[in-house]
UniProtKB/TrEMBL annotation:
Pathway annotation from the record: Lipid metabolism; fatty acid beta-oxidation
Alphabetically ordered keywords of this record: Acetylation, Fatty acid metabolism, Isomerase, Lipid metabolism, Mitochondrion, Transit peptide
Cell compartment(s), UniProt: Mitochondrion matrix
Domain of life: Eukaryota
Name of protein: Enoyl-CoA delta isomerase 1, mitochondrial
Family matches, as InterPro entries: ClpP/crotonase-like_dom_sf (IPR029045), Enoyl-CoA_hydra/iso (IPR001753)
Gene name linked to the record: Dgri\GH11303
The organism of origin for this protein: Drosophila grimshawi
Length: 282
């Protein structure tokens, strides 16, 4: 083999370094680009990245790991080329074991705070459908680039779910109030053109690598800022949005659990889950 070829292969190998998140699971994968210092965090729970307890814990650990290892930014994406995330794993909410439900909802609240308040610049390369909490993951990031042909939004009201305040906030942090309110009340899922029109997403990409490049460019736009000053300014800008959850996480947890355990919610969920399963068998 020519020396130049070997050099090129070495360079290719060096470009992306996988880092573990200490728990050995592959539910999320983290790769840091050695050249840019930007970490790509990939959701990797087949078939549709539905967020169960284990994925939420893993995701939270990976976000923290990315901050600890001094990465310059975080790009959130999916290993599935049709689904970014299908939101919460509905099986966690259906006739739940109460101890697991508590752990699950705590993990959800913690993960959202970690992503929403992350010290590093964050961007979502949305390479598939981003439904409900899938959309919340994307809106917790500072920038969104999406591929055509997919839907994004929070359609909870269509299926009889009331959205908890932090989910509301993640919409309100990117959309004007009247658009957020209308979309939530309609249970609207946005097409890419609609999402771009209301600025729910920032850019359209023509493939996953293009989306990653666009996200990296956004993150690069902070190159000349001082990281601590940037992080503190972001925290201050977002302080009001997280006040409720930071001041009273247990109260927020209690309210959600009470709601999830109502016969009304459980019956609606049962019908929805049955529909989802029969659709996937068509
Ligand atoms: C005042 C206080 C208020 C407190 C409020 C408290 C609680 C609020 C309660 C709930 C809040 C919820 C937020 C959420 O995120 S709920 C999740 C909502 N998500 C969805 O509805 C997405 C449903 N899925 C889809 O639309 C499609 O699957 C999708 C477009 C994502 C992909 O389609 P595709 O055709 O590729 O794949 P499918 O064949 O449909 O699915 C494959 C497989 O996966 C199962 N599945 C899909 N989504 C979920 C899910 N979210 N949870 C669990 N399982 C899911 C699907 O059933 C198939 O399974 P199988 O039949 O192959 O076993």
């Amino acid at each position: 083999m020519l020396r130049s070829q070997t050099k090129l292969m070495d360079l290719g190998r060096r470009l992306c370094r996988s880092i573990g998140n200490n728990n050995g699971s592959n539910l999320t994968m983290v790769e840091v680009d050695d050249k840019t210092g930007i970490a790509t965090l990939t959701l990797n729970k087949p078939p549709v990245n539905s967020c169960n307890l284990e994925l939420l814990l893993d995701l939270n650990e990976s976000i923290k790991q990315i901050e600890r290892n001094g990465s310059r930014g975080l790009i959130l994406t999916s290993s599935n080329d049709k689904v970014f995330s299908s939101g919460l794993d509905l099986n966690e909410l259906h006739q739940p074991n109460q101890d697991r439900l508590i752990a699950f909802w705590r993990a959800l609240q913690d993960m959202w705070l970690s992503l929403f308040l992350s010290r590093v610049p964050t961007a979502a390369a949305i390479n598939g459908h981003a439904i409900a909490v899938g959309c919340v993951l994307a809106t917790a990031c500072e920038y969104r680039v999406m591929l055509p042909g997919f839907s994004i939004g929070i359609h909870a009201t269509k299926f009889g779910y009331v959205v908890p305040p932090f989910i509301l906030i993640s919409y309100l942090s990117v959309l004007p109030r009247y658009i957020a309110e209308r979309a939530l009340l309609q249970g609207k899922l946005f097409s890419i053109d609609e999402a771009l029109h209301v600025n729910l997403i920032d850019e359209v990409a023509d493939g996953k690598s293009d989306a990653i490049i666009k996200c990296a460019k956004f993150i690069g736009s902070f190159a000349k800022t001082q990281p601590d000053a940037r992080a503190l300014t972001k925290r201050q800008t977002r302080a009001q949005d997280v006040q409720l959850l930071i001041k009273d996480p247990e109260g927020q947890l209690r309210e959600s659990l009470e709601y999830i355990n109502t016969p009304f919610f459980q019956q609606g969920l049962e019908v929805y889950l049955a529909k989802l399963k029969s659709k996937s068998k068509e």
